[in-house]
Amino acid sequence: MSILAYDLGASSGRVLLGELTGSRIVVEEIHRFSNDPVKVGERLHWDLLRLYHEVQQGLLKAKHMGVNPSSLAIDSWAVDFGLIGKTGELLGNPYHYRDWHTHGVMEEIQERQGKDFIFQRTGIQFLTFNTIYQLAAMRNASSPLLEQAKHFLMIPDLLRYFLTGEMYNEFSNATSTQLYNPLQQKWDDELLSGINIPRSWFGEVLEPGNVAGTIRSSVMTDLGIGAIPVIAVAEHDTGSAVAAVPALEHSFAYLSCGTWSLMGTETAQPVINDDTLRFNFTNEGGVGRTYRLLKNIMGLWILQEARREWERQGYSYSFPELVHMAEQAPAFTSLIDPDDELFLHAGDMKTRIRQYCRNTGQPLPETPGEITRCVLESLALKYRYILELTEQVSGQRFNGLHMVGGGIQNRLLCQWTANSVQKPVWAGPAEASAIGNLAVQWMTQGKFADIWEARRVIADSISVEEYEPAESEAWEDAYGQFRRVAGLFVH
């Protein structure tokens, strides 16, 4: 039987049809759509109802192919949410995590509740757009939505609710909010009280692999389809991506590479100590009550934004064209810390990159090739720094690095990452979040005994490309240059 995986990223969404043929996974993309934020006045929102429309279009395309899926599941980015009122309707379009309304709120909450107090209760990395700070910002602004709200649902929770009429919060996304206590395995009453948000909004937390409802009758009538179970997978897309890492050893390092880059390892328990607080690591929930000990890295967002700015100026460059131009540009001329706050929000990245280089006494990159090379080299070097930190805080040593996600289609970045970390890089699968989504659905249906059996089948079903490290001396020198420029002197 076929199943459907909805994988919603920060810039696009896709629907994959999955089948198990013998002991191999076969996937087919049946629907792809853009996911464009919408700015209204000074606020940046997600167009959630358009996303729900695309969810329905995926069901219609499956129907027109003669497919009756035995289940479906949805994964997406984390931290963002919507509020449901007493009539069961969505109260406004959810804010986009890159909106400015959280400016200064994280520091305010840290001062009031204590940074150590928050981290010891959640184990979550401090990021200005975490859910806790979004809710606190709404409270500070006296948002009328808070007075009308009865339920809190994250993006996949909302879409599931629209499909099924059932309200649940899912574990991997719940942990990303910095409001869930993994030690007590529940929403944290003290943190919610500290931002004056009712505990009653937050519902039962489902583990990945639980059935979260069935397509409601009105949807079946509107689309002319039958009943389909909707499964809660690891609904934070990184959780699904890590589920699809084709690792055969329990100790492994991964890099989920796309708009964001997320690097870390999988642990049985959250790692909450002075080092993970000091280095701002996070402990996000995964499949089978595992945890993803990782750090967020700004990722290809910087290059995506630069490309958008060139398009606004009338220059249309494909990503392969930019990569080719980067190869022709001189090496290690200018480097940035991709995680500098300059690069968090939407805007003219060329100007910001030049500003960073000016502030750090470096040559200013001018051409698209120079800008692209600066971003890709800097990412590869930041990956080495974070991999070294991951080894330190986890107490593990990794033989290589698994890269998954759409970013692995940039072969130059994969090779430069291998050069930088001086370890083999194993790249694949590109559609990791969707494949991890499918894998957990098959676990629910009893097709796989556990995530390790699923990973073995994934490893047998996909092509993994290996990149061997090269140019070690040049990259070693560049790493020292990068750490000086970024001010990363201490491990």
Automatic annotation (TrEMBL):
Q: Which CDD domains match?
A: ASKHA_NBD_FGGY_RhaB-like
Q: What is this protein called?
A: Rhamnulokinase
Q: Which GO terms describe its molecular function?
A: rhamnulokinase activity
Q: Which organism is it from?
A: Paenibacillus peoriae
Q: Recall the taxonomic lineage recorded for the source organism.
A: Bacteria, Bacillati, Bacillota, Bacilli, Bacillales
Respond yes or no to whether keyword Ligase is given for this record: no
The record's annotation in Pfam families points to:
FGGY_C (PF02782), FGGY_N (PF00370)
As for family, the record states:
Belongs to the FGGY kinase family.
EC number, UniProt record: 2.7.1.5
Enumerate the spans annotated as Carbohydrate kinase FGGY N-terminal domain: 3-241
**What class does this enzyme belong to in the EC scheme?**
transferase
Q: Which PANTHER family match?
A: L-RHAMNULOKINASE, SUGAR KINASE
Q: Which residues form the Carbohydrate kinase FGGY C-terminal domain?
A: 253-442
**Keywords from the UniProt entry:** ATP-binding, Disulfide bond, Kinase, Nucleotide-binding, Rhamnose metabolism, Transferase
